[in-house]
Amino acid sequence: MKSGAPGLLVYDADCAFCTRFAAWSGPAVPWQELDLERAGATVTQATTAAGWLVEDRIVAWGSEAIAASLVQRGGWSGIGGRLLRLPVVRVAADLVYRVVARNRHLMPGGTTACRIKPPGPSGLTMLLAMGVILLTGLAGLVASNRGHEPYPSLLMPGFGSVPETEGSVSATRVTYALVDVDGSTRPVAAAQVLGEHSGYAAALRTLAAPGAATDPGVARWLRSNLGSAGEHARAVTVDWRRYSYDTETRARRDLGIVSSVTIDLGLSR
Amino acid sequence: MSWDSLTRIDLGRYRVLYAAAMLLMLPSFTWLADYPDALYQPPPGPFRLLDGFPAGWVLAGLGLLVAVSMGCLLAGTWVRAASWAATVSMLVGHGLSYSLGKIDHNLLVVVTPVVMLAAGWAPGSLTRPWVLRLWAFTIGTAMLTAGLSKLFGGWLDPSSHAVQGYVFQQVYAFDLTQWLGRPMTHVAAAWVWEPMDWAAVVLECSVVILAVLGLRWFRLGIALLALFHLGVMLMLNISFAGSVIVYAAFIPWGSLRVTGIRPTAPVGVTGGILAWLLVERFGNAAELVRPALLIGGAAVGMWWLVHSVSGVVAAQSSRVEGGAEFHHVG
User: Fold this and answer.
1) Is there a smaller number of Cβ atoms within 10 Å at the N or the C end of chain B?
2) Nearest by CB to A137, which of B31, B142, B172?
3) Of B257 and B17, which is predicted with more confidence?
């Protein structure tokens, strides 16, 4: 009988009760230190039952492994171990082992961490869950492509279409300018218009939202951001200007303004 | 290698790493209070229920809640409540800031605390491998959305070069000239750019398949993704450090032999409040932490790839040696 050969008790080091028993019983090794694949075992087996390792293979599990370790320990324990191997006792020992293993967190020295994991969902449930996740991601993508990116949504930045064609890259730059009361314009930095927490694009899209350009709250907010720089300004213009860049020479060509919004600061005289 | 090879020690250490990284990159939401309500244009979703930005004290409270939750996660106290509070407060805070028109795709890092709570990152809780498996699939699906967007956007067309185009955009249209962006605009060879387009699409579309195949394959995917994100930072100046933090959940941190001082609950809470005060006063350390995380993530990914390849080579050579010995004996 293989489990009668000298060996090591394989136990779960995450379980204090199991660790205490292993320390008492004699030579033992936690499954966490074993190459389970080589030992012919799975993590599920190793976390749910004690094993008996002979050379590099686990040859017995559960009550049989406990019996083997007791026999190896010798003395009274050895007699107990041999008793556990008797045909009728073995069946009862197996049942007792299962009950103890299932409730090992309630045993002396046991903690919550000793609890054996409940079985996970079935394969079909997992398949359904994966289907739901996949559909959720794809639905977000469809909505996003229609210009209505939802939040929260399971999306990663896709970048989308290729900006380069035939050695030319086209891109949009956003520029800000102040329109003074005398009608002259002067460029102004984005951070000065949007405030220090604006980020590189925050508020850009919403500045072009319907109603934003004429909203007194927006005008007040802009005036507060501009401070003294906006003293003589009556409006802020935001231009979305398209440029193309030659990938060989890196030369820039102005393709003109594609969109523009002028926000009245409420100082028109 | 199955999903249950990740132990509660792995997950517990990941919780500490996640909380530490997030404390260094704490978001602030108070700046939103300055914005006029006319600029509140929420995306389709629950934030359409509001008419404008909440008051400053509400936004400050949200930031404080994120900070204290991260402190608790770091210390390992009230982990269940802290995980929920962290996810909900970040979800709400980011949802409000995205109502200004720019959405950052950071949902994965935001929902990580709740997902990992279910997976078993709280002290003394049971690990649930099936949660990790579904989480890996979710990450794969998120990457698939990026890959499909590129695929349908014409990235595989050999006559045009998407990565080159975006490098030009970042450098010339957005003035993001750090790292390798500007030198890369001097590279014109198509054989450099076109494989990058293909690699991005193939990698992003395949992670979901790798997640289905198992943990070993998924680790291959995230190792490659970590290198990919470093490349994106170096060339495009776009930092996906949050993604690297998310991938770190699948690393067996328990196998590292480390000893450290375990912070207590008061230390965690005080640390969180202190971090929040620092962020509100001086801003967070994200500009430094993000590149460090991306470089660290890529280093771990590279180490894993080299380790795996050398393991396969060693196994092959021992098989060949075994075969030769058998042949000799025979």
Assistant:
1) C
2) B142
3) B17
Going by pLDDT thresholds of 50, 70 and 90, the confidence category of residue A33 is confident
Looking at the predicted structure, is the pLDDT value of residue B329 above 60? no
pLDDT at residue A172 in the model: 87
Q: Please report residues of B whose CB lies closer than 8 A to that of A43.
A: 2, 4-5
Q: What is the mean pLDDT of chain A?
A: 86
Q: Which residue in the set B38, B148, B238 is minimally distant from A217, CB to CB?
A: B38
pTM for the full predicted model? 0.81
Angle CA(A18)–CA(A24)–CA(A25) in degrees, nearest 5?
Answer: 85
Of residues B95, B146, B168, nearest to A245 (C-beta):
B168
**Cα–Cα distance for residue pair A222/A198, rounded to 1 Å:** 12
Tokens at B205, concatenated: 């579309």
Our separate counts of H helices and E strands in chain B read: 12, 0
Torsion sign, CA atoms A132, A134, A137, A140: negative
Q: Number of C-alpha atoms within 13 angstroms, CB side, residue A147?
A: 1
- Which has the minimum average pLDDT: A148-157, A159-168, B130-139, B313-322? B313-322
Torsion angles phi and psi, residue A9, rounded to 5: -80, 125
Cβ neighbours of B110 in A, within 8 Å: 152
Q: Smallest CA–CA separation between B27 and chain A, in Å?
A: 11
| Substitution target from A124, A134, A151, A265 for chain B, most B beta carbons within 10 A | A151
Q: How far apart are CA A147 and CA B44, in angstroms?
A: 10
What are the chain A neighbours of B111 within 8 Å (beta carbons)?
152
User: Which of A16-20, A85-89, A112-116, B299-303 has the weakest average pLDDT?
Assistant: A112-116
Give the dihedral sign, CA A33/A35/A39/A43: positive
**Nearest Cβ partner for B169 among A117, A140, A171:** A171
Signed CA dihedral, B187, B189, B191, B196: sign only: positive
- Closest residue in A to B182 (Cα) is A250
Q: Distance from A10 to chain B by nearest Cα, in Å? A: 16
ipTM of model? 0.89
Q: Phi and psi at residue A231, in whole multiples of 5°?
A: -55, -45
B142 or B125, which is more confident? B142
B7/A209 CB distance under 8 A = no
Average pLDDT over residues A152-174: 88
∠ Cα A104 A109 A110 (to 5°)? 30
> With 70 as the cut, is the pLDDT of residue B330 above it?
no
